[in-house]
């Protein structure tokens, strides 16, 4: 029921935007900019099954990935010419996907990185960049000036299916990991 209501709201928003386009007398450049914004929005809320539709390792190209999945949050290019594209599903979504592209420009793998196994790879002393490469963009960032620490948090499905929780990485003033923690997602009554 919630999904149907969400779809109806999205459809209404699209219809309103299209009507605004028609009535606004925008030039082609403005319309193209609005269209790109609208596409980026839809890519960010597209269900995962549609996000990955047609993506085949060894066959799909970098251009195929960008066309289907949209603009990544971050793109890293490595010395061998391979790439890693980051797609957080947010805001504060439960999944972040890393899309690996080989040096030949073909899709290698799509990996959901917000997992207990990946969290276990975070070690004391890692830099913020190293953590970001493993887990992607955090859903929340909090600075605690008195404690002289910054905490990055990712919401995830603890146990893989049901219970949502936060995985937190604490950084000291030097930008290095000091500890990690877990916290509950607070629900209203």
From TrEMBL:
This is Outer membrane protein assembly factor BamE. Residues 113-179 form the Outer membrane protein assembly factor BamE domain. It comes from the Bacteria. The keyword Magnesium does not apply. The keyword Cell inner membrane does not apply. Keywords: Membrane, Signal. InterPro entries: BamE-like (IPR037873), BamE_dom (IPR007450). It comes from Paraburkholderia denitrificans.
